[in-house]
Amino acid sequence: MRKITYREALKEALTEEMRRDATVFLLGEDIGRHWGGAFKVTEGLAEEFGDERVRDTPISESAIIGAAVGAAITGMRPVAEIMFGDLTALAMDQIANQAAKIHYMFGGQVNCPIVVRTPFGGGVNIASHHSQSLEAWFMHVLGLYVAVPSTPYDAKGLLKSAMRGSNPVFFCEHKLLYPIEGEVPEDEYTIRFGVADVKREGADLTIVATLYMVHKALNAAEELEREGISVEVVDPRTLTPLDKQTLIKSVKKTGRLIIVSEDCKTAGVSAEIAAMVAEEALDYLDAPIRRVAEPDTPIPFSPPLEQYVIPDERAIIKAVKEVV
Amino acid sequence: MTLNLAKEKLVELYRKMVEIRFFEEKVFELYAQNLVPGTIHLYAGEEAVAVGVCSNLRKDDCITSTHRGHGHCIAKGADLKRVMAEILGKKTGYCKGKGGSMHIADFSIGMLGATAVVGAGIPIAVGAGLSIKLRRTDQVVTCFFGEGASNQGTFHEGINMASIWKLPVIFVCENNLYAMGTRQSIVMAIENVADRAVAYGIPGAVVDGNDVLAVYEVTQKAVERARKGEGPTLMECKTYRHKGHSRVDPARYRPKEEVEEWLAKDPIKRFKEKLLQTNTLTETKIQQIEKEVSAEIEEAVKFAIESTFPAPEEALKDVYA
Q: Considering only CA atoms, which of A315, A258, A265 is closest in space to residue A293?
């Protein structure tokens, strides 16, 4: 099968859906012909679809999402790009109180099918305003779906589903994933929300990981394999809805669970998954659940500091050895 | 009040204003009887704005509204029964009891919903305007908000966006002088919100918001401009709420003389006098209108009171589409 990058996979999803559906349009800062998006996901799209449908906006995050909401409730399917995940804080009212609540508060009268794409994550030395992983904030926003694709295949399939769905979707990308290559079929496909993917099968322990951490977990699993420890890696792919069944099934099989997430430990993605498994599958656990997550600090700038706080293969292997 | 409108139109404007006033008086009464859960923000005193603006709109034109939104809904043509039922938290309300007084919407008449987050409706109206532009229709959007909302970042972000893209949005600031209990002069160094239009390169107009014909006339121009694709307008309607901010707020922060001055400028009283002076309406006809409107509102109240509350487990529905 052909291989393309995560960036190209996202662009393909946007391109195909824009060709298929005239109500789809993109808006965001510097996404147009002069820049093509800070991470070049939309490069070339203005040339094909024009400046109206690939719309550069002022630096107004709140109005970007608000405008997407207003367009969505009047028949359009906007995909908004927020240049860095941290900046979604500027648009939080429009995301959490407006987009996510409109369907419920108005008694189901109208849908708000917006997609908000944004990159999270550290590893590029740009400090805490541009490096956080805030997925858990959005898991707390009822009415919103949250996607966390880790591969080009998942990125394309989930983005296409998001763009065809009826609900607002918060679509988390990761800066370090954009250049990663993976197999993506030429033929049309979509991936349903709420379906986890077992990225590697194993017998001794389950690692649940998201976004870039999936790749670190896979590296760790390979190394552990050489030491005779068989690790299963499960990627939820969407945090809302969360595929509890697949996660629990894996835990039942291996009896051990480690959750690896780049966001901080307190009230983070890992906290929710740990609580869910403890509540629903405690009897199947042969060892305590371990979480490998960012310690409760902001993301620092200087390379040794940043490397110290972001979970890596070493930390994952250490955690595994503590419970196996 | 120099506008030459057909008699039927003038009567319609008057009737709509009375409808809102009587409706709000009834809501207040029901509130006192403990039939309204939560809080209420009454529109009484500001009727000329909603009516003057919305009577320029077609059914397929859109509006966004605020926490003080009953008047906007009624002026846009919402069903009184379903508005009242929503205020009472009933299953038959516009939002099946999920929204209440501050969050009513009726998408079938272009009422895109009220938001109780001050200023949050501004970018949403801009998005509806963008949608109209992309769909290439000649609809327009009017966006209601108060002078308090004009200090939110959304005001700047939203109007700037509408102006650069020449979107068909009419921004209608209802300046009732107080943001809750905070007088405008405490939080703004300028007197007119409309002066801010200069910053966006769009027309701004200060209007006597208690004169329905003045509001009508300015809106008409703004709508015409928007339909022609010439872009947004910022209108500021100077008005006053008869009651306090919410519920039983006695509004002691307002000087007595000021309240009296504004009560004397009551938009319904003024319009009635004008209609009588010009022989557009007679006292008998006015009484007949009031009687009809009263009956209509009694019917809405009856419908709302007799409607059932939603089943408790309905709370779990409609979180996702």
A: A265
Residues A180-203 have pLDDT tens digits of: 999 999 999 999 999 999 999 999
In a domain, B321, yes or no: no
Distance from the Cα of A288 to chain B's closest Cα (Å) equals 33
Residues of chain B with Cβ-Cβ distance to A161 below 8 Å are none
The per-residue pLDDT for B92 is 98
Instruction: For domain A3-183, give the CATH number.
Output: 3.40.50.970
The backbone region for B249, taken as left when phi is positive above 0, alpha when psi lies in -120 to 50, beta otherwise, is beta
pLDDT-above-70 percentage for chain A:
100
pLDDT in tens, B90-104: 999 999 999 999 999
Q: Which of A53, A68, A166 sits opposite B321 (nearest CB)?
A: A166
Beta-carbon neighbour count of residue A172 at 10 Å? Answer: 25
CB nearest to A60's CB, from B105, B113, B161: B161
Domain holding B86, by residue range, is 7-312
The residues, ordered by sequence, that sit 6+ positions from B27 with a Cβ below 8 Å of its Cβ are: B36, B40, B42, B70, B84, B87, B101
b/e burial code for range B109-132 (CB count within 10 A of at least 16 → b) = bbbbbbbbbbbbbbbbbbbbbbbb
Residue B1 has pLDDT above 60, yes or no: no
| Residue B4 confidence (pLDDT) above 90 | no
Q: Percent of chain A at pLDDT above 90?
A: 100
Query: Measured between CA atoms, how close is A76 to chain B, in angstroms?
Result: 6
Residues of A in contact with B161 (CB under 8 A): 57-58, 60, 63, 67
The pLDDT tens digits of the residues spanning A10-50 come to 999 999 999 999 999 999 999 999 999 999 999 999 999 99
State the Cα–Cα distance between residues A202 and A130, nearest whole angstrom. Answer: 35
Give a yes or no: residue B267 inside a domain.
Answer: yes
In chain A, which residues have their Cβ closer than 8 Å to the Cβ of B319? Answer: 103-104, 142-143
pLDDT in tens, A94-106: 999 999 999 999 9
B231 near B163, Cβ under 8 Å?
A: yes
Query: B317–A108: do the CB atoms touch at under 8 Å?
Result: yes
pLDDT band at B233 (very low <50, low <70, confident <90, very high): very high
A174 is catalytic: no
Contact B321 A108 (CB under 8 A): yes
User: Is 0.95 exceeded by the ipTM?
Assistant: yes
User: Could you tell me if residue B320 is inside a domain?
Assistant: no
Domains A3-183 and A197-323 agree in fold = yes
Q: Which of A63, A74, A105 sits opposite B95 (nearest CB)?
A: A105
Nearest C-alpha of chain A: how many angstroms from B238? 26
Residue boundaries of the structural domains of chain A: 3-183, 197-323
Q: Who contacts A301 (Cβ-Cβ below 8 Å, separation ≥6)?
A: A125, A126, A127, A128
CATH number at residue B197: 3.40.50.970
Q: Are the C-beta atoms of A276 and A269 separated by less than 8 Å?
A: no
Say whether residue A73 is in contact with chain B using an 8 A CB cutoff. yes
Indicate yes or no: CB of A71 within 8 angstroms of CB of B127.
Answer: yes
**Structural domain count of chain B:** 1
Chain A: give the shortest CA distance to residue B26, in Å: 23
Query: A21 and chain B: CB distance < 8 Å anywhere?
Result: no
Q: Among the CATH numbers 2.40.50.1020, 3.40.50.920, 3.40.140.10, 3.30.360.10, which is that of A197-323?
A: 3.40.50.920
Structure tokens at A217: 């977990």
Residue B132 lies in a domain: yes
